[in-house]
Amino acid sequence: MPIGYAVNPNVAMVTGFSLHPDEEESRRRGEDGLRFFRYGLAHHYIFGEHKPGRTDIWANFEKARHALPPAGADHGIGTPDQLRTHLRHFEESGVDQTVFIQQGGRNKHEHICDAMQLFAYEVMPEFQDARDRA
């Protein structure tokens, strides 16, 4: 065990997450949550003027929603096959870990749980098997 600083060679990526067998339903459930998360980051770090307890970031997001880019399958929102493809791109790029953003905006708890269960049964086993073979 080295004394002092140690190198952690893992690379982690943050991505959206909303999973459903129907792509449109997945987007309906999760797209605004990811878009709001990104808007909130930009508000705090790029363009916003924030007054704690007074600034309504959600209201500002709703006013700007029409101008924001979509967040679909290439951002972790879609069907199991679409998410699998998205994660494969990370894997092929050398990403070791993925952090899913699913709690942004007004995402419903039961939709998050449904998506996680679908992920556990339909997507994760394939990646777990690859990890076990490595």
Explain what this protein looks like in three dimensions.
The chain is mainly α and 134 residues long. The chain has helices spanning 23-47, 57-64, 80-92, 109-122, 124-133; strands at residues 12-16, 18-19, 77-78, 97-101. The model has no long low-confidence stretch (mean pLDDT 90).
Brief overview, please?
By secondary structure, the chain is mainly alpha-helical.
What is the gyration radius calculated from CA atoms?
A: 17 Å
Give the fraction of residues assigned to helices. 40-55%
Number of strands: 4
- CA distance, first residue to last residue: 24 Å
Backbone structural class = mainly alpha
Query: Averaging pLDDT over every residue, what do you get?
Result: 90
Strand content: 5-15%
Tell me the layout of helices and strands.
Layout: E1 12-16, E2 18-19, H1 23-47, H2 57-64, E3 77-78, H3 80-92, E4 97-101, H4 109-122, H5 124-133
Parallel strand pairs: 1-4, 2-3
List keywords for this structure.
134 residues; mainly alpha; two-stranded parallel sheet; two-stranded parallel ribbon; 5 helices
